[in-house]
Amino acid sequence: MFDLIMANFAMHISLTPAEADYVQSVLQHKVVKKNALLLSAGDICRAIYFVNKGCLRIFNIDREGDQYNISFCPENWWSVDIASFFGQSPAFYSISALEDTDVFYLGHAAIEKLFIEVPKFERFFRILTQNGFNLYQRRITSNLSKTAEERYLQFQKQYPKLEQRIAQKQIASYLGITPVFLSMLRRNKQTTNR
């Protein structure tokens, strides 16, 4: 049950058997149904989520009700509105499930206690935050400087096989294009690959 998340931790820190037992004892688990919200913008983000199976999305809704996907979080990814979670302030983003999703999560108090009980987790979450910040900076630069086709190819590279699992409108929202334009990009790509 804990294999994937423990392997994720092992990417950046080495845990003793006692530390591994401790983190497993504080991790909470739940299954989130497709389309269910884990966080609504304006609420306080109370947990940081690890996707064990399924896919979450982080998104924002503008005044007209249009949704903008900021990030997809498939298996082995973390999902959080980081400013809301660590500042315990109202969230700017919402988080929902794109398919039935199995998550592990840590609440704010649990993670603060984890930092004290197993200090190396501060290092793990610092690296996670740095990697996330780097990802967002690259995404902003990509949106400003790359064509829709280049962004689509980058999406395919960053999220291999996700395209077959989620709705075209979700991908189009992430790329900043219409679903019709995405269909055209896909057709052009299929034609060039023949």
How would you characterize the overall build of this protein?
There is one protein chain. The chain is α+β, with helices and mostly antiparallel strands and 194 residues long. It folds into 2 domains: 3-145, Jelly Rolls; 146-194. Helices cover 48% and strands 22% of the residues. It has 8 helices and 8 strands; from the N terminus they run ααββββββαββααααα. The strands form 2 sheets. The protein has a 4-stranded antiparallel β-sheet. Strands 2-7-4-5 form a 4-stranded antiparallel β-sheet. Helix 7 (168-175) crosses helix 8.
In short, what is this structure?
With 194 residues, the chain is of the alpha+beta class. It contains 8 helices and 8 strands.
- Work out the strand percent: 15-25%
How confident overall, as mean pLDDT?
94
Oligomer: single chain
Q: Give the overall form.
A: globular
Rg computed from alpha carbons, rounded to a whole number of angstroms? 18 Å
The CA-CA distance between the termini, in Å, is: 42 Å
Structural category is alpha+beta
Number of structural units classed as domains: 2
Point out poorly predicted stretches.
none
Strand order, main sheet: write it out.
1-8-3-6
Helix count from the secondary structure assignment: 8
How many strand segments?
A: 8
By CATH, the topology of the largest domain is Jelly Rolls
Run of helices and strands: HHEEEEEEHEEHHHHH
Protein name: Crp/Fnr family transcriptional regulator
